[in-house]
Design brief:
Elements (H helix, E strand, L loop, with lengths): L2 E3 L20 H13 L5 E5 L5 E7 L7 E2 L3 E9 L8 H15 L4 E7 L9 H6 L3 E5 L4 E7 L8 E2 L1 H4 L8 E5 L6 H14 L4 E5 L3 H5 L8 E5 L2 E4 L5 H9 L1
Parallel strand pairs: 5-6, 10-11
Antiparallel strand pairs: 1-2, 2-3, 3-5, 4-9, 6-8, 7-8, 10-12, 12-13
Length: 248
């Protein structure tokens, strides 16, 4: 497999998701705009040259859009290999490239969000443990912070207190989200419209800055849905999924 690293120079011409065919789709344009603003903060995005979900996105943890204390670490936003590209060792390639790059930059280690049991859009804990990662912190909702130290005296990363006990103020549904996930640009407005049409209390909090993300009341900032203050899921909702959830 050949890989390509996204840059400001090639971002517009490169394809970033096989599930979205058009580069003019709002989901693609919002994600590419988010990426373009992160490159100067050290973000790295490496993907397969083939169209498909096969990429890794990582950034110095000091600049990550998550509420963690991990100075000197690299934080992996997303490691995703799926569909026909699974089972060929590409996840090993991508993770290995991240670890090698982090070591060369003198980073203390690498960290990433996961969970005790595999959850949608979070890294597989079994794969991470196989690659030498271990759990260094866990929030009340079961979201775990896993790390791979690269320095013998590296202090493990940890969640900020605001994320260790996830909670959202207000009754009804509250959604925290960022533009890091391309699907949010399409589906958050759909859920907002669906909730309004069905008289379901719903409020979306669009996280638009690193500072806001690093102080969010949830370890997952890309998509975190709450009901009556309690955390529900990090799985993106469409209209049908949301109505099914609200009917329970």
């Amino acid at each position: 497999m050949e890989y390509v690293r996204l840059t400001k120079e090639n971002l517009e011409k490169e394809h970033i998701c096989c599930a979205i065919s058009s580069n003019n789709d709002v989901q693609v344009t919002s994600k590419k705009a988010w990426l373009a603003e992160r490159f100067d903060s050290g973000l790295v995005f490496i993907k397969s040259v083939e169209r498909g979900k096969c990429f890794i996105e990582y950034i110095p943890a000091e600049n990550a859009w998550v509420p963690i204390e991990a100075e000197g670490y690299t934080y992996i936003d997303c490691l995703w290999v799926s569909g026909s590209l699974k089972g060929h060792g590409y996840a090993n390639d991508l993770l290995g490239a991240c670890v090698k790059d982090s070591a060369e930059k003198g980073r203390k280690g690498v960290c990433i969000l996961s969970s005790a049991k595999k959850k949608p859009f979070l890294a597989d804990p079994k794969f991470l443990k196989h690659k030498g990662f271990s759990v260094c912190d866990e929030a009340d909702n079961g979201i775990q912070l896993m790390y791979l130290p690269l320095a013998p005296d590296a202090e493990p990363p940890k969640f900020k207190e605001c994320a260790r006990h996830p909670h959202a103020d207000g009754a009804g549904y509250v959604l925290y989200y960022t533009d890091q996930c391309p699907f949010n640009a399409k589906y958050v407005p759909i859920v907002e419209k669906t909730a309004a049409e069905n008289g379901i209390p719903f409020r979306a909090v669009h996280i638009v800055s690193r500072e806001q993300a690093q102080n969010a009341p949830t370890p997952v900032t890309t998509y975190a849905l709450f009901r009556d203050g309690e955390y529900l899921t990090n799985e993106q909702m469409n209209d049908a999924k949301f109505l099914k959830l609200a009917a329970k």
